[in-house]
Input
Amino acid sequence: MNENDLMSQMKISKAVATMAIPSVISSLVTVVYNMADTFFVGQTGDPLQVAAVSLTNPIFILFMAFANMFGMGGSAAASIAMGEKNEKRMKNVSSFITYASLIAGIFFAAILLIFSKPILQIFGANTQTYDLAYGYLFHISYGAPFIIWSAAASFVVRSEGASKEAMIGSMIGTIVNIVLDPVMITGLHMGAAGAAIATTIGNILASLYYVWYFLKKSKCFSIHPKYFKCADKILTTVCSSGFPTAIFSVLMSVSTIVLNQILVAYGNAPVAAIGIVFKANMFITFLQMGLANGVQPLLGYNFGSGNVKRFREVESYTKKCCVIVGIIVTALYFVFRTQIITMFISDPKVIQYGVAMLIAYMISGPVIGILFVNMNCMQSIGRALSATIVSVLRQGVLLIPLLYFLNAIAGLNGVIYGQALTDIISIILSVILWIKCRKELETQK
Output
């Protein structure tokens, strides 16, 4: 199939399905990948092990912040370059993504290894969880370059129309992680540290797959060092386009740290519970995020080629799909909320906290996809600032003070509703900002 036919001529529903289904599968693979560590650690029956993984979760989120910045920014830049038929720029973008990811990963590995003690103290580790959390941090740190690049590469590969190949890369890391988790965690009795080792090995193998793809199969991209450059607005275009997604993840990491610090005052059980809920709720969120991310190349290509009508049709159809999927999945989660938490751990106290937290987190489930589609639309037309504003509010400027405020007036019961309230406000704001951007877009018809 000609990639230009897919991007510019194929029926909207078919084009969205072609691009979004592999992206959704990749996102769900990511969810399973993230759930695996918590699930298998939970099978030890030790709430402290689960709490340790929850406390170190901000590290993985921080890795994803840079992976998303390079990946989403690179995907947007590559899609526009494809629409403009600029082959050299496509190679510049893919090479930049590769080496920028590796440099960032090495930097984070060094920081985590050198400053592990103060970092874990900031994260909320106490005398009961410190050693367990350190084991996870140590082994995840040297995997940073591979974790960041393998995730970023999947976005860039998808922008070429190779959604299937991007999905395969994601599945390699996930399958390896799921296979190794029980071996490392239970079989070798390594607990949280074993989960980190499994994650790192999975990402190393996924990275090797993407190396093969770029060297042997890609038609448009290259990872050859000769194409690496920061000039000609490569760095600024990639980073500015991906910045909203990156700041979203960075602030998610910070807000998770703040949340853990607040919850640890109520004991280790709420910390363990929120870690489970965070991973479980990812299914609702990432399902819709996968839909939104999957159509980003369609949006970028049609904006780059000046086809505003098709751009709008892709946007509208994707939003309808997100809402339908969001309603169905949230309803299923509500019905089986207790079983979902029990699947991860059998501790009665953690289950009690977890069920209440999951209900709170599900409130925005039916409509959260609208937020992600609006953000991708804004990024695709170069309105990175508008998307950044929404990201900053959702995961930092609004959420963090709201968590402290709700804790002060309602204690733990108030804190657990902080994310849902922030989501609703962010969705409304994204609609307002996108309507403004869309009016400007319409003038280009």
Summary: The first helix runs from residue 3 to 8. The CA atoms of residues 160 and 220 lie 7 Å apart. The chain has a mean pLDDT of 86. The two ends are 28 Å apart (CA to CA).
